[in-house]
Amino acid sequence: MQKKLRRIGSILIFIGLSTIITIILENMSSRYDSLGVFDILPKKERVVINYLGTRVTRYLIEYTPSLAKITVRIIDKRGLDSIIEGSELKPIVEFKEIDGLDYTFKPPKRGLYAVIIKNLGDIPIRVKVRAFYSGYDYDIIYLGIAIILIGFTLIITSNLYGKSR
Amino acid sequence: MNRSKLNKLFSLIRWEFMRNLRFPILEFIFVSAVYSIVSGLLNISSVLNVDIKGIGVLIYNIFADDFIFRLGLCFVGKYDLIIAVYSLLASISFAGEIASGNIRLLLSYPLKRRDIFFIKCLCLFFIPFIIYLGVSLFFLLLMGQDVILYLSWYKFLIALFILFIESLYVFSISVAVSLLLQNTMASFLSTLLILYGLEKISFVLPSSIKIFVPPENLRIYVFHMFNHVQYSSTLLFYSFINMLVLSLLLLFVSYLYFVRVYEACRRS
């Protein structure tokens, strides 16, 4: 029993360490994604959906011609569900009547996020959306730390169990 | 099958576990599985650009498919780690036991050589496979929680099938080389060299031949199955059959050698 506990503990420590090291290696450099270049007709809305981890995310939205104004809302999975169900939309953040956006935020949890862009002008506009990711996926790092702690607890328990016998 | 034979088979399985999964081999398998799967699933990059009226449940299916596609790709993309895992296990279990003389002890056990070979193969093949499956499911549930209800389990089975074929191919070559060389380090290094060599060759081959050479044929299959690139289904089918036949043939030759030809107490 004591040996088995110690073994399971050592396996958990290795799993936790490899999880953390993988995240550090993969997140070491920042990443850039082009989320598309598209046209929006006057008074129409378009949605750009992508999957985000918990890395710091910077959205860059530019458009031409810059005569018109736009409204940008960022929503999460709950927001997407409310669009599908047709219920009231509660965005994470909303920017009204702007002429471009450079917004940095840290997603509270990993999952689907969407940017809703509305053309408020009377002419069609061409929009370019980009995203930059930097920092680390801390949710997975915390998971790795938790696994390591469970592993250590098992090893300590096995030692105490051995001493008590 | 009577009870005492079953007990003997179970003690043989236990022996295999004790000898081949000791520290740090099992840990190495877990580390390779975690690294392969986490690094693959971190790079989900699907982007959907739709009119607000076009949003429906279908968008979740698209992201769920992307998760499975990434999983399939990371099984093929981290082929090097699968080579390392299986060649290590086969070298320790077959070549290592022959070199150290432990195989004589095993053969003195009242079991047929056929049973010993099958149990060794089943244990060595399925342990990494099950670990990869478990780690995949764990991280899939953890990282894809928003779309988990929309996952196509049929496509998940296809990804697992790719892992199965790939593992069987690597495993059969590792076992054959181990039985041929009968030396732990020599068989480990030779298997690595053969499989890495074949992998590097497969990168530079023309695409008409590439479809028949692992792991490029598996990569092509992943792209084909998840509708990113279309290839001829017949060619892909033959490519899989070739891989399967080659693997089974190598395992059969290894079986014949171990059961009929191999002399445990050969006099020099």
Characterize this entry briefly.
The complex is a heterodimer of chains A (165) and B (268). Chain A has 165 residues and is α+β, with helices and mostly antiparallel strands. In chain A, 38% of the residues lie in helices and 38% in strands.
Q: Indicate the radius of gyration of chain B in whole angstroms.
A: 21 Å
Q: Average the pLDDT over all residues of chain A and give the rounded result.
A: 92
| Number of beta-strand segments of chain B | 1
Query: What is the typical, i.e. mean, pLDDT of chain B?
Result: 89
Figure out the total of helices of chain A. 3
Can you tell me about this structure?
The complex is a heterodimer of chains A (165) and B (268). By secondary structure, chain A is of the alpha+beta class. Chain A folds into 2 domains: 1-29 and 136-165; 31-134, Sandwich (Jelly Rolls). Helices cover 38% and strands 38% of the residues of chain A. Chain A is built from 3 helices and 8 strands, in the order αββββαββββα. Chain A has helices at residues 2-27, 77-85, 138-164, and strands spanning 31-40, 45-52, 56-64, 70-75, 93-98, 101-105, 111-119, 125-134. In chain A, helix 1 runs antiparallel to helix 3. The radius of gyration of chain A is 23 Å and the shape is elongated. The N and C termini of chain A lie close together (12 Å). The model of chain A has no long low-confidence stretch (mean pLDDT 92). Chain B is 77% helix and 2% strand. In chain B, helix 2 packs across helix 3 and helix 4 (79-100) packs antiparallel against helix 6. The longest helix of chain B has 31 residues, at 113-143. Chain B is elongated. The model of chain B has no long low-confidence stretch (mean pLDDT 89). Strand 2 of chain A pairs antiparallel with strand 1 (47-51) of chain B, so a sheet runs across the interface.
